[in-house]
Structure formats: C-alpha cells, structure tokens
C-alpha cells in the first residue's frame, strides 16, 4: 500500500528543449511562410537585460513593414541554422545520452499562410527527416505543435486568435501533423505556454487588442477560449487517429508566494495563482473554474461561446501537464515597491533569492513546491519541459567553463528528485535551449542556456560552429546515472 519512491523512474525522459523559430533559421526556405515571430526579430533591440520581456510588436510597427516590402530587412540569421545542421546537433544530443528532445513544428512551414488547402510537402519532409534522425539515435521526440508561431496572414486577415476561424485552420494543421507523424511521435504538447496570451497577445495569439472593438482583457480571454477549443478538438482527433499519442497541455508556471504572511497578501497570491492555473484547470479538469465566473463579471468580460463548446472541453482533456519553470513570483496587496524582471511578467523582489544576470530570481525549492502543488491539484503526470539559466558564456580555446550553469541545474534537479520522493509523478525534464539559440525575450544570442555553445553573436556574425561546454560532460554524467551523480 505504501510504496517508497527512491529516485527517478527507470524510464525518466532526460533531455533538452528548443523551438523552431529560435533555432531553425531558414525563415524563407523550403516554402515556409512568414510568421508573427519573424517580425518580432527585426525590431531593433537595445540591451534588454533589465526589461520585462514581452516580445511585443505594435500594430503600427507591423504595418510599417507590411506596407512596404523593402522595409522587411531581416537580420542575417535568426536561428542557429538547425534547419541545415540538425544531424550534427542530434549527434551531440545523442552523445549526451538524451532520451528525449523537445522541438516544435513551425505552422507556416506546413501551411505557409495558414489557409492553404494542401500542406507544404517540403515542410513535412523536413520534420520527417528530423524525427527519423532522432529515432535512429534512440531519442524520443517531444513535439510542440505551436511555439508562438502564427502565419502572419492569419494576423492580417483575422486579427489572429480573436477570430473563431482560427480554430478550424489550426485543427486542420494539427490533424495533418497527427496523420503524418503518428508513428514517429508519441509525446505532443499542443500550445507552448498557452497563458502567454495574457502577457503578450501578439506573441501568444497573433492579435492586437487595440484593433478589436472589445476590451483588452476580454479579447485575450476570447482568444484563449478559441485556443482551448482548438486544443480539445486536436485531442479528440488524436484519440481517434493516433491512439498511442500522449497529449499534453502546457503553461509557463508562475508559482506565486505571498509577499508577507499578511492574510491580504496570501489572498492576493491565491488570486494571482488562479489566473495562472486557470489554463490548466480548463485543459485538465475540462471546465471553466468557478473563480473565473466572478473574475469575468468584475472585469466585464463576456465571452462569445457556442452550443457544444462546453461538451468539447469536458470530453477531451490533456493526458499530462507540461510546464516551464524559471522562477517564482511575489504577490502583494499593496502597490509594487521594487520590481525585478522575469519570464513573461515582472515581479516584486524576493529578498531570499539570488538573481540571474538577467535579473530573474533563482528558486530551486520553488520547483519542488510547484511540482507538489500541481500534482496535488491534478493528479496527472507532470513534465518539466523548460528550465535553465540564461547566462553570458565565454569561449576560450574552444572551451566554455560554465560552473554557474551546472550549479543552477544541479540545485533544480536535487529539488526535482525530492518532489519525486514526495510522490509526484514526473515524466521527464527537458532543459531549455540545450543548444544555444536566439532568446525569445531579447532576440539576442548572448543570453545562452545550452550545453552546446554556438559561435554566433547578437548580430548574426560567427562561424556557427558548435562547441561542447563543461556542462555538456556534466549533463552526460547526470543522465547516465539517472540523476544520481550531480
Ligand atoms: C519561455 C519560452 C521560450 C524561451 C524561454 C526563455 O517563455 O517558451 O521560448 O525562450 O522562455 O526565455 P528567454 O529566451 O527570454 O530567456
């Protein structure tokens, strides 16, 4: 009756994570259409270390570029050329002993405008080749169907996910993926960080709230509703057409502590946390939680829904909860005094935590807390699909010494192991940007997360050669010992 858990399960999925738009490059190769994120990257960035990173583009900025094609002055490279170098990269991952590799498929590589009748065969072939390479190297693909990348034509024509039309276009795309790759891919995540909609509607939903006649918040939740439907309908199709598929939902986990033990702060922490787990509540429990009824009413949010929506959400829920974890947040009932930056949203400074070079609080114990809380809430397996330290690295004589990264990861894995001993069912751990890639928040190369160094600077200069960092050899040892040798 009482089974003691000693450590990570034997089949624990160790690996790393990437996203197509941050690593493939080749934005106009192989029939790919332009995506919302292609536009984020040509807006000049200053040193954004201290900014809250929202990845936003304004409607005016986008239009300025769209009006005159010659304005489209794409930087030389906006990835690390994974599109052409995937074989070499996968070889390095296999050398580290990866059991899984999280990657995403670029929607506009498959449907360039999102609205074609037939998919782009060249795009499908590219992913076929990547999956074959992974499987040949004994690496299980973990595939995100959409990592923020929306065909730009859908933004222009429909204001992105504000329109319900996007549900059908997206489901057509995801059905294409399931049909084509069901024998190669078992683990899927439908939307990357679906709660990103709140922080940046452009990135999360390809939409400009100011273009809508509705309030900013209302349009974001409307778009979210459409994404929930698209997720459930994708899951419905997977149950029929790819019965072995495991379908995950994903949020950026914003674990929130009260700033003090004042009851008002505790209440505030619960309320802010609810706005985060609202997403998983709908996708795992299959219905809108009661607390949102009050929230919607108080914020004058009226969602347009159709008959049958409720049933779809109830019937097709996620098999597991995937999440990114970088830091924890503080909630206070008093107006903010001092803020620091963070992943997706800023937060108050927690005096007990150190900050990364980008001022993101570092909180390994928070990972154990969040694993316990999510598991208690849902009782379905969890999957940590992003975690890691963005840092400046120095390449010297072909070597990168990154003890800071090893220290960060070892502390997080230690807490992860404690959570597993607490009884949390954890499927795996894929650290973010296992090979250096372009940062989502800053569009820069110098914020590096990887075990593999890629020779490229913020302006796209460099040989693109790959080098193994010290953390490469360390992670190899961690995987070989199933998390025992840290
Ligand atoms: C997550 C995104 C990733 C990623 C990561 C790190 O929110 O899913 O795409 O980039 O954050 O963020 P950054 O690149 O800004 O350091």
From TrEMBL:
<dbReference type="InterPro" id="IPR001360">
    <property type="entry name" value="Glyco_hydro_1"/>
</dbReference>
<feature type="active site" description="Nucleophile">
    <location>
        <position position="386"/>
    </location>
</feature>
<dbReference type="Pfam" id="PF00232">
    <property type="entry name" value="Glyco_hydro_1"/>
</dbReference>
<keyword id="KW-0326">Glycosidase</keyword>
<dbReference type="GO" id="GO:0016052">
    <property type="term" value="P:carbohydrate catabolic process"/>
</dbReference>
<dbReference type="GO" id="GO:0005829">
    <property type="term" value="C:cytosol"/>
</dbReference>
<keyword id="KW-0378">Hydrolase</keyword>
<dbReference type="InterPro" id="IPR017853">
    <property type="entry name" value="GH"/>
</dbReference>
<protein>
    <submittedName>
        <fullName>6-phospho-beta-glucosidase</fullName>
    </submittedName>
</protein>
<comment type="similarity">
    <text>Belongs to the glycosyl hydrolase 1 family.</text>
</comment>
<dbReference type="GO" id="GO:0008422">
    <property type="term" value="F:beta-glucosidase activity"/>
</dbReference>
<dbReference type="InterPro" id="IPR018120">
    <property type="entry name" value="Glyco_hydro_1_AS"/>
</dbReference>
<dbReference type="InterPro" id="IPR033132">
    <property type="entry name" value="GH_1_N_CS"/>
</dbReference>
């Amino acid at each position: 009756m009482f089974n003691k858990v000693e450590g990570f399960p034997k089949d624990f999925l160790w690996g790393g994570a990437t996203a197509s738009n941050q690593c493939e490059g080749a934005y106009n190769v192989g029939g790919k259409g332009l995506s919302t994120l292609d536009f984020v990257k040509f807006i000049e960035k200053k040193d954004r270390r201290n900014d809250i990173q929202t990845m936003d583009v304004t409607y005016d900025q986008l239009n300025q570029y769209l009006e005159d094609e010659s304005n489209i002055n794409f930087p030389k490279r906006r990835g690390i050329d994974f599109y052409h170098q995937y074989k070499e990269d996968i070889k390095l991952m296999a050398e580290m002993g990866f059991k899984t590799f999280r990657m995403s498929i670029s929607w506009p590589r498959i449907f360039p405008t999102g609205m074609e009748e037939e998919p782009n065969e060249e795009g499908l072939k590219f992913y076929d080749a990547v999956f074959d390479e992974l499987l040949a190297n004994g690496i299980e693909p973990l595939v995100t169907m959409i990592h923020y990348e929306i065909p730009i034509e859908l933004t222009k024509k429909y204001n992105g996910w504000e329109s319900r039309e996007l549900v059908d276009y997206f489901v057509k795309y995801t059905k294409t993926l399931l049909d084509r790759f069901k024998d190669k891919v078992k683990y899927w995540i439908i939307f990357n960080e679906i709660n990103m909609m709140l922080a940046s509607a452009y990135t999360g939903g390809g939409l400009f709230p100011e273009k809508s006649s509705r309030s900013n918040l209302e349009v974001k939740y409307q778009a979210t509703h459409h994404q929930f439907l698209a997720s459930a309908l994708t899951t419905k199709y997977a149950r029929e057409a790819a019965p072995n598929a495991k379908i995950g939902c994903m949020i950026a986990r914003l674990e929130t502590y009260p700033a003090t033990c004042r009851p008002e702060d505790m209440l505030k922490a619960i309320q802010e946390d609810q706005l985060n787990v609202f997403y998983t509540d709908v996708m795992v429990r299959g219905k809108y939680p009661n607390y949102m009824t009050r929230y919607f009413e108080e914020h004058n949010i009226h969602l347009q829904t159709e008959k049958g929506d409720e049933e779809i959400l109830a019937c097709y829920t996620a098999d597991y909860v995937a999440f990114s974890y970088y830091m924890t947040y503080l909630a206070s009932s008093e107006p903010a005094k001092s803020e620091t930056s963070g992943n997706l949203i800023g937060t108050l400074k927690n005096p007990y935590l150190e900050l990364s070079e980008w001022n993101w609080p570092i909180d390994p114990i928070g990972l154990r807390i969040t694993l316990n809380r999510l598991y208690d809430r849902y009782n379905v397996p969890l999957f940590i699909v992003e975690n890691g330290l963005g840092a400046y690295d120095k390449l010297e004589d072909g070597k990168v010494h990154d003890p800071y990264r090893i220290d960060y990861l070892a502390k997080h894995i230690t807490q992860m192991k404690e959570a597993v001993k607490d009884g949390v069912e954890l499927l795996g751990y894929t650290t973010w940007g296992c090979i250096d890639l372009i940062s989502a928040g800053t569009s820069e190369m110098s914020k590096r997360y990887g075990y593999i160094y890629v020779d490229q600077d913020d302006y796209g200069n460099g040989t693109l050669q790959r080098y193994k960092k010290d953390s490469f050899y360390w992670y190899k040892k961690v995987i070989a010992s199933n998390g025992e040798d840290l």
